[in-house]
Amino acid sequence: MIRCENICKAYKHGGLTKKVLQDLNLALYPGEKVGLLGRNGAGKSTLIKLIGGVELPSSGRIRRSMSTSWPLGFGGGFQGSLTGYDNARFIARIYGREYKEIRDFVAEFSELGGQLRMPVKTYSSGMRARLAFALSLAIEFDCYLIDEIIAVGDQSFQRKCRFELFEKREDRAMVLASHDTHVVREICDKAIIVHRGKATVYSDINEALDIYDQL
Q: Are β-strands 143-147 and 2-13 bridged in parallel, bridged antiparallel, or unpaired?
């Protein structure tokens, strides 16, 4: 499981401190799907990064006994001077997987073609998201962290993403940050609303969505 204990996150800028999250407590169990709701800038992406270990909390503790993906839609972990294929090789080495297996999956799934031979720093944000999605799915995780990635690409690519995540991996835990309440209602077991620095957990999805609609 993943347990967040009294998590706080604050950023300092220009001598000021902005609290993004305060006193968050959350337990995520194997196979559980959690919807992450909040207006733009509320702190959803920050919470995703904290759970994934991309950022550290200002205080509190996160305990993990499940493997987590890096945040889908977050391309900050890429080496921009390397090609898409080189990044696939790097991921294969880190996770002890055969490079050819990872390379072939990434090429087929991302549909980036010859762009995979180009440096990632030349990619558009959508291309980087496709590569991030493909690399994440090329490695099996217990928990997938999803930050609005479902909206990437055309409808055909979106359907493929939904199938790979929500059908082929329906037994995995997920944290899904999304403005699409229909997706959250369809997929998630419970929800977290991030609002004014507070993250509140709701076991009733319908209650959470009703409150979110009123924010």
A: unpaired
Tell me the pLDDT tens digit for each residue of 154-212: 788 888 888 888 899 999 999 999 888 888 999 999 999 999 888 899 999 999 999 99
pTM of the model: 0.84
Residues 6+ apart with CB under 8 A from 178: 35, 36, 37, 146, 148, 150, 184
**C-alpha to C-alpha distance for 178 and 125, rounded to whole angstroms:** 18
> What contacts 155, CB < 8 A, 6 or more positions away?
none
Q: Tokens 């090789």 correspond to what residue?
A: 89
CB count within 10 Å of CB 81 equals 9
Q: How far apart are CA 155 and CA 191, in angstroms?
A: 26
Q: Which helix (H) or strand (E) holds 94?
A: helix 84-95
Q: 140: helix, coil or strand?
A: coil
Joined together, the tokens standing for residue 147 give 């930050």
The dihedrals phi and psi of 27, each to the nearest 5 degrees, come to -120, 125
Question: Is the CB of residue 68 less than 8 Å from the CB of residue 142?
Answer: yes
Amino acid at 2: I
What's the alpha-carbon Rg for the chain, to the nearest Å? 17
Name the β-bridge partners of 157: none
* Alpha carbons 81 and 24: distance in angstroms, whole number: 37
User: Do 30 and 53 form a contact (C-beta atoms < 8 A)?
Assistant: no
